[in-house]
Amino acid sequence: MLSTQRSATETFGVFLSTLIERKMPVDVEQMARTCVANNIGLGYAYRNDIFVARSTDITARCDGEPLRGGATLFARGTFSTPSGAAFSNTVLFGANRRSDTLGTLHVGQIAIATALALLEAHGYPQSRLLPAIVAGYEVGGRLDLAYGERVALAGFRSTPLFGAIAAAATAAVAMALGPDQAASALGFAACMAGGLLQPFEDGSDDPRLQPGVAARLGLLAAEMAHSGSRSARNAVEGRCGLIRAVARCDCDPAQLTASLGEEWLVLNTTFKRYPVCAFAQTPIAAALGVKERIGRRAVKSISIALSPREVAYPGLDNAGPYFSNTETNMSVLYCVAHTLVYGPPTTDADLTKFRDPALERLLECTRLVSDDDLQPLWTGIVIELENGEVVSGLQRPSSHALTAEGAVQEMVREVLRLEPDYEQRLKAVNTFMSSLPALSPGDVTRLFAVQ
After folding, report:
1. Is the pTM of the predicted complex or chain greater than 0.85?
2. CA-CA to 142 of 20 to 30 Å: which in 12, 13, 38, 361?
3. Domain count across the chain
4. What is the pLDDT of residues 74-89, one digit of tens each?
5. 383-400: per-residue pLDDT in tens?
6. In CATH, what number is assigned to the domain containing residue 164?
7. Are residues 262 and 291 in the same domain?
8. How would DSSP label each residue in 72-120?
């Protein structure tokens, strides 16, 4: 007998099909604009990053330049297919490693790139942009909140896994799909998504490109649904569905989709102050909190305590030797050592001190420990000095997280100060920021045209 209960994709589909007409709360729209400012502003500052160049080259070879219906590769100013632009621009928006974070999901770079590509290529109304972006946060965020920890233990990374479904949700709203088609868009993405955490162990380049693949897949999933193709209705919670396969547990669709349209998860988004892993942000703040108390005195040992979930996350306990900034970006040990010796890592150069004697000395006596009493993103630090004195501190995330739009915009301006022709670029960014209430793909293109 067929179940009369809505599946997870069906419930999400109904929500997505009403989001354009729904009046979102003011704080939700404000947060969406802040996410746009963060991703596009930092993407502009890193438009010449090597991985951005690689992503545009990949797109040019695989997708070419369409005769019509194309979308802009913002870093290069050329056109490609919507899916090619979604891929390349997602990599662009994450190039600075300060992608906004919802749980363990970097959804902003994916949702924003996907929405902009579709609006530009198909001329969809600008009024769909923010609802489409918010859709990615609400769907992807619920999957990560419920199952992010479990999928990480199984070796899967939330951003490419749940990010593909978030991209499908964004595309469904941008395309104004009906409930059945929106549900199929999510189902197609769920049945085809993936992405492993092993690159964080090996220090490889995969993490820089994984979000772009998720954006491309989500957009294609929505196009499959739009064509009339139908996906598995139980793609998320079924016996052979996504959650059983990657989280190794049952999925309750009613619990997963509870409070849709009432509790807005996008409001829980945080922004990285430093261009390293989200799990390393609070440890850096903890190190800053004790640095002055240590002064120049010799350190005997450093103990950094995190919650059990974070200690188990691949790459955080990497003590070197390091061969890539993928490793140093993830390593809590490296980030704390760098903060104590040189200050917080803020540039690519800070993440490439692979054979630095001062850092190596600290890393040799630094360890990561698990503390069941610590809440997620809290950090305890204990430093024993050679003279026997002990310096310790407890750091909560709220004291260093960026949440206000003004703070995010100022961070973008600080990153731009490292570039030549700062005044010209600052003027371009300020003009872009003023367009945010009525942002269009053309506003983004004009920003990136200022070279």
Report:
1. yes
2. 38
3. 2
4. 999 999 999 999 999 9
5. 999 999 999 999 988 634
6. 1.10.4100.10
7. no
8. EETTTTEEE-HHHHHHHHHHHHTTTS---BBTTB--HHHHHHHHHHHHH
